[in-house]
Design goal:
- By secondary structure, this protein is mostly helical.
- The chain contains nine helices and no strands.
- 75% of the residues lie in helices and 0% in strands.
- It is elongated and about 65 Å long.
- About 4% of the residues have low confidence.
């Protein structure tokens, strides 16, 4: 959608995104088969189907935010807003918009996945913590013997991207709970430079962190739904 609005060509096939899509779509296929067989009187399968379709949409939106923020970052050539012409300032503002939307979406997708995991494996997370995050679910998953293998795999993925996730989480918390993350950077720069120009934050590093967050989300989704598909097929004797 964003590519069309920005006058860019359609998204090309991408292995990490395609693998996550394939795993989730296979889960949806299995759910629809079960609905056809058992008619799903409690609507549990239908609810999972809707949630997983929502995960696919959320992942696509995250990818589009990464694409758009990267696109506008390339249009920013000055190190200070004060040195920019109006057109470049607008491109910088667009970069900030999509970058912020992107790092918020990283955790939004993960927390939606936590809700799906809670439902898939009947983890009863609300008894442990009324408002739980994906990372709370992950810690609990590792304590359930029959799902410990998945918990271990997801923890390995999380640790591979620990540094980027930590930075993205810090910016997300600042953005949501305190003040805009770029304003925090401006305050720090003003403190350092006093009456000098305020230099931009490291845009390339920020894009790299968002890229890492997106990669982590793709790998996590793939791992969860490949595991789920294998488990359901084993239980069904397929």
């Amino acid at each position: 959608m964003l590519r069309s609005l920005l006058g860019e060509p359609p998204r090309q096939p991408e292995e990490r995104l395609d693998k996550a899509h394939k795993a989730m779509k296979e889960t949806i296929r299995i759910l629809r088969h079960e609905i056809e067989l058992k008619h799903d009187p409690t609507h549990d399968y239908r609810k999972l189907e809707i949630w997983i379709l929502g995960l696919i949409s959320s992942l696509n939106e995250l990818e589009e935010c990464l694409f758009a923020s990267s696109l506008f970052r390339k249009k920013v050539t000055h190190d200070s807003v004060e040195d920019m012409e109006p057109a470049e300032r607008e491109d910088y503002a667009r970069y900030v918009f999509f970058y912020k939307d992107g790092f918020i979406r990283v955790f939004a997708v993960l927390d939606k996945l936590g809700t799906v995991l809670n439902e898939l494996f009947d983890m009863k997370m609300a008894k442990i913590k009324p408002h739980f995050s994906f990372f709370t679910v992950l810690r609990q998953l590792q304590l359930i013997p029959k799902h410990a293998e998945l918990g271990k795999d997801l923890n390995i993925i999380k640790n591979q991207y620990r540094e980027a996730l930590s930075e993205l989480r810090r910016r997300r918390n600042t953005e949501i709970h305190y003040m805009n993350s770029e304003l925090r950077d401006d305050l720090w720069q003003r403190h350092q430079a006093l009456f000098g120009k305020i230099e931009l934050e490291n845009l390339d590093l920020h894009i790299r962190d968002l890229e890492q967050g997106y990669q982590m989300v793709c790998e996590t989704l793939e791992a969860v739904f490949v595991y789920t598909n294998q488990r359901w097929k084993q239980l069904a004797g397929r």
